[in-house]
């Protein structure tokens, strides 16, 4: 087994994908000789030539728009948006064309392309380099939106994204680029549209993805020391959503907590909470809680620690999962659900 | 390693301020000074252009009538712009691609797309009715200028696969203000992509006149800043549009890079059937442009040179009439609706959540079907 970082595993995935399929092309800003600002495309131009990996003009809408055209002609473009917040100029292309082309053309034109976006904070970067933009994409039907949390998933999910007949927004948790694992590459993990249980536990379910999976696992270790067993579910795919795995876990544990870096308001955690409530209502012992970024523009790096979900914030939220008021349907009145006072609304 | 001390590239010549033309307003061969070195296409080509314009105008009138009858959800007319759409479409070779907007129905039927499939979008049956790959016509694009970069990527990919496919992008004057137009022009020039951008400058972006859109001497001048060739053409002269687009495509195909053509024309009809142009423009202006009719101009030339007789004219008219009749007949019945299709093409395979929604909608549709029966379906 060899030591691999997430960044190197993604690089290897691109290399192997390009070897496997001559139609795979990689381009974007600074992805050529520089190898990308995070070096994810390092060496690809030298190995496959400038026809297969090249620098484009600095214009994200043009990058994605040309990728649409290339995919229409049977190529498999993998384009890089340099940072989350720099991808916004391409939003029109992503929403109106990438996501809809198959649908608009009744399946006659499919767009097998991948848009790689480093996202999230935690690297001490200045503004516009730390956004968690996943909800914008996950809200758009026709896109697959996936995000790996482990080195093995980084490799496997990127290979699968390139092979997918559907367009994929591939969100790379940038602060995990340097996280490492010992493993052999190539590796194939679970299908990219399935969530996986990273750590089993009977008392509560912590639902996380991308950069917060590791935080959730650290919190689960602390909880174990307190005698509470948290099950950690790594969503991996935000869209489509793996209801089956998530609901099965919450039905076992009866409590659920969603953790993400993005602002809570209108965020992806709201969708998770709604789905869990719809599918697990009679199994829930407490409301589904969220640990999210604050409802503020991404803060300057000296303050980002207050914005990002931490182990402590997860532990605090776990404490609020109404452990004192467990109830069992049909049991004696004393153990029953407390009577909620009626709220009178004055005119 | 690349160097920054490469010799400067020779700038393409500035487009002329007067649009180049091969036929004047009265239907005579234009003076040499107006032709800028371009030759009138051969007689067969001129007759083909006129025939397609006659058919296109009849189709346009038919579609407008269907919109008034409520049989189309909306119809943006091509009337007055036939020379641009036909001249552009007929310049394409079989392997080339056309990237049209919603106003380019006449270009699409000139390219051979089934007229009923062209109207699928505007009838509200589905978003794109034709098979883009079969006709090598991209879906009609509504968010302006956003399909221009698709043409750049497509031709770039085609060239890498050994094909000499070129592309023609149709856009309007308003669309040149969009950032996506800028990005597409720049990508095309930097990549030396075989793309011709044909701007149908019809003076109006719904209600906004050109002078509020651009301060450029002509829209064709924009080409220069990107390092591509720019042409300023009379857009009501089908011969000129065809000649210039043909040359630009040939040059692009042989490695000469992209070109930007501004064709000066006019939107004679309202933006769509739901627009009210009396709020923003004078009838006198519209009348002036109606008199500069592109069909009359080409017909006058062909007749004066003895290349068009009444029999041929009647043949064009009869082809146009039978197309209109076929469109009427085929659109007379209520559209077939499939709720399953709502879910069929979102992903390659419907997701579990979409399968659940599909079942729900199927049930609702069946209930509605029963409800519309005399006994309520019971």
UniProtKB/TrEMBL annotation, chain A:
Enzyme kind, highest EC tier: oxidoreductase
Q: Name one GO molecular function term.
A: branched-chain 2-oxo acid dehydrogenase activity
Positions of the Transketolase-like pyrimidine-binding domain? 4-179
Query: Where, by residue number, does the polypeptide cross the bilayer?
Result: none
Annotated keywords = Oxidoreductase
E.C. number: 1.2.4.4
Which superkingdom heads the taxonomic lineage of this protein's source?
Answer: Bacteria
Q: Which cofactor does it need?
A: thiamine diphosphate
Q: Which GO terms describe its biological process?
A: branched-chain amino acid catabolic process; response to nutrient
Q: What is this protein called?
A: 3-methyl-2-oxobutanoate dehydrogenase (2-methylpropanoyl-transferring)
TrEMBL record, chain B:
Q: Does the keyword Oxidoreductase apply?
A: yes
Cofactor(s), by name = thiamine diphosphate
Q: Which family does it belong to?
A: Belongs to the BCKDHA family.
Q: Which reactions are catalysed by this chain? A: N(6)-[(R)-lipoyl]-L-lysyl-[protein] + 3-methyl-2-oxobutanoate + H(+) = N(6)-[(R)-S(8)-2-methylpropanoyldihydrolipoyl]-L-lysyl-[protein] + CO2
Which Enzyme Commission number(s) are on file for it?
1.2.4.4
Task: State what protein this is by name.
Answer: 2-oxoisovalerate dehydrogenase subunit alpha
The beginning of the lineage is:
Bacteria, Bacillati, Actinomycetota, Actinomycetes, Streptosporangiales
Q: Which residues form the Dehydrogenase E1 component domain?
A: 52-319
Determine if Protease is one of this entry's keywords.
no
Q: Name one GO biological process term.
A: branched-chain amino acid catabolic process
What molecular functions are annotated in GO for this chain?
A: branched-chain 2-oxo acid dehydrogenase activity; magnesium ion binding
Basic and acidic residues bias spans:
360-372
CDD domains, per the entry: TPP_E1_PDC_ADC_BCADC (cd02000)
Q: What class of enzyme is it?
A: oxidoreductase
**Chain positions covered by the region annotation Disordered:** 353-378
Q: Specify the species.
A: Streptomonospora alba
